[in-house]
């Protein structure tokens, strides 16, 4: 119980800090935010009106207080460019980004588990060496470049998948999957490499445990030992690795959406930065960071639940 | 198959030195001026005159890739330097003083770690105008928590060590203990992290520049070259290949170097232990 309480405490502390940081980011703009948005040609009246709209005319403490209260009411302000609440803009774009993240996660798990087992089983042999080369390269290839290459090979040359653009799930699940598969694969490649390397190490550790020797001496089949005993134990740390990389997967999708011209968080954030839409940037940063912190919390608690032996360091 | 011992380290050293040499050469010699445009030679394939072909303005891709390596190494070097400096100050303070100072600083680092690296960079870029310096600072800040954690845990492990207590009783001051007695023990994990972060910096810079939010023209960047190449991908695939291969090889080199040094240190610790 102690662990859960402490972990929740850290979670709320981090959340407050995240709210504070997103607030600061918006306020440390050199000079006046209204001036930065409208440019030097704006009239004083325009500047004053925008300052009022942004709340930048009030004292900082009051601004932070109202930002805190608004956030607690899920009110993240209004986008300057779209004149729409930030939250509804983000929700409207979330299906693309979440689909990408989930498909990438599925690809990662489905590919990494057999590869990791294969590498551990052939430890020190040619297959292990080959897999380690592939994972090293997978870790080094920038995901947006592998995205471009995937477009070149499977989009233009073979014409198996669409080379960009997005078809909503509601329109056609098949076409939606066809438009999301390549970008998800590009996001998944470095993740696969990470999980394979991790899984290989944990499986090799598990293979040296007493219970494996016992299982062998009982006369169990090798496949039973691998799948029923070793994999079960080796997967626990993998859950953490995958969960902890949720932030990376989300960040990866921000860039990959640009490569495949998908209307998700990435394109919204990049266009918000381009048009200096500060309320939108602030809200998006807060929500993305919140998601990452929340997933990390869930992963920590799940890990604890899966492996009660684990002591909090 | 008989594998050479620690092949990671040797391939890493080879790739990093090759890329470093490539960058050094670019200071003294470029096949062409990287901004020289030849409209007749637009999107020409690799040939004897242009080994890696030309881009949409007829500029020599090899020369631009060579110039781009300077940006990649600059970003890698300075952002890691910022990360180590910041991490050293925060990690040493937290680890040496301990108690509530440690608690506050480390919770702060946890919160900073909650932001994906590219988000921190994007926020900084949206506040200030994107350019080379902004990119370096943004990536450097992202590295601080990682180094701070390594250095803090080193301090926790060593501040009660016998040789530190002995030094204290011999009258050594705090600064002397930190610099001469505790820090040297942390060299190897910091070097490993530096090498791995160097490659991460190159990847983040390329991603930011690809989005148009990193290094701006006229500074050359591999990431931006990839962005420009994408519009011509079906006409001139070689344009998209060259910068990507150079990013991959450089990143691979630093990754292998980091892994190799870690393996080397693990073996050395093992031998020391015997």
Summarize the structure.
Chain A: It is found in: Cell membrane. Chain A: Belongs to the binding-protein-dependent transport system permease family. Chain A is mainly alpha-helical.
Notes on the protein architecture:
The complex is a heterodimer of chains A (313) and B (274). With 313 residues, chain A is mainly α. Chain A has two domains: 3-87, no CATH class; 88-306, MetI-like (MetI-like fold). Chain A is 77% helix and 0% strand. Chain A is built from 13 helices and no strands. Chain A has helices at 2-27, 33-38, 44-54, 60-72, 86-121, 126-140, 143-157, 173-207, 210-217, 222-244, 246-259, 265-274, 278-306. In chain A, α5 (86-121) packs antiparallel against α6. Chain A starts with a helix and ends in a 7-residue tail after the last helix. The model of chain A has no long low-confidence stretch (mean pLDDT 80). Chain B has 274 residues and is mainly α. Chain B is 73% helix and 0% strand. Chain B is built from ten helices and no strands. In chain B, α2 (61-97) packs parallel to α5 (132-158). Chain B starts with 6 loop residues before the first helix and ends with a helix. The mean pLDDT of chain B is 82. Chains A and B meet through α1, α6, α7, α11 and α12 of A and α3, α4, α8, α9 and α10 of B. Chain A: Belongs to the binding-protein-dependent transport system permease family. Chain A: This is ABC transporter permease. Chain A: Its main location: membrane. Chain A: Residues 94-299 form the ABC transmembrane type-1 domain. Chain A: Keywords: Cell membrane, Membrane, Transmembrane, Transmembrane helix, Transport.
Main sheet makeup of chain A:
none
Number of helices of chain A: 13
Poorly predicted ranges of chain A: none
How far apart are the first and last residues' alpha carbons of chain A, in Å? 15 Å
Secondary structure class of chain B reads mainly alpha
| Proportion of residues in β-strands of chain A | under 5%
CATH superfamily of the largest domain in chain A: MetI-like
Q: Report how far apart the termini of chain B are.
A: 29 Å
Shape of chain B: elongated
Order of helices and strands of chain A: HHHHHHHHHHHHH
The rounded Rg of chain B comes to 22 Å
Please describe the biggest sheet of chain B, giving its number of strands, its sense, and whether it closes into a barrel. Answer: none
Number of strands of chain A: 0
